[in-house]
Amino acid sequence: MDPANPYEPPQSDLIHPDQDRGPSDVLLVPWEDKARIPGFLDRILATMRLMARPGEAGPSLGLHRRIGPAVSYFAWVGLPMIWVMQILAALFGPTDPMAGILDRFGLPHQAPPPGMESFQRTLQVVVSLFFPVSMAIGMAVIGFVSHAGLWLTKA
Would the pTM count as exceeding 0.70? Predict the structure, then answer.
């Protein structure tokens, strides 16, 4: 503590354990390392296995500043998996998915009329099939609004 300022908080040395290592010393995430894992499917599976062990993934995620590989992994693996799960849920899931949640909390709900179940199923499938289009439009609108806000606040 500095005797000149008794209200100053205690200070410590800001030394990161990996301070001496650089991005070239740390292995890339398997998705990024095409030289070590050449197969597309092999890189996907290796990355999924690594994400199940975050302690091993941490150093390679923290030192590399590029976001392109993470975005491409999400585009090539994450979005198709979400889309497939959404289609499966629309095809084989309940026609009234909120009924269980509403029942659990004791909230009232009305079951759909018998003739509407097939219409609800069809509507769920159509909405899930147009998911990529709606996702692209949503990302464009959000991007436009974000950049417009940044442009307006530019000094």
Answer: no
Tokens found for residue 155: 């000094």
- Tens digit of pLDDT for each residue in 98-145? 888 888 898 888 877 878 888 888 888 898 888 888 888 988 899 899
CA dihedral over 35, 38, 40, 45, signed as positive or negative: negative
Residue 31 half-sphere exposure toward CB, CA atoms < 13 A: 22
Distances from the Cα of 2 to the Cα of 7, 15, 91, 112, 146, angstroms: 9, 21, 68, 71, 45
Q: Treating both helix axes as pointing N-terminal to C-terminal, what angle do 79-92 and 116-129 enclose, rounded to 10 degrees?
A: 170
Task: Report the Cα–Cα distance between both ends of the chain, in Å, rounded.
Answer: 40
What is the C-alpha separation between 57 and 29, in angstroms, rounded?
7
CA distance 60 to 34: 15
Q: In the numeric block, which tokens belong to residue 111? A: 């079951």
Token pair of 46 as six digits: 């290796």
CA-nearest of 53, 86, 87, 75 to 139 is: 75
Per-residue pLDDT of 22-64, as tens digits, reads: 555 667 778 887 888 888 889 888 888 887 887 777 666 655 6
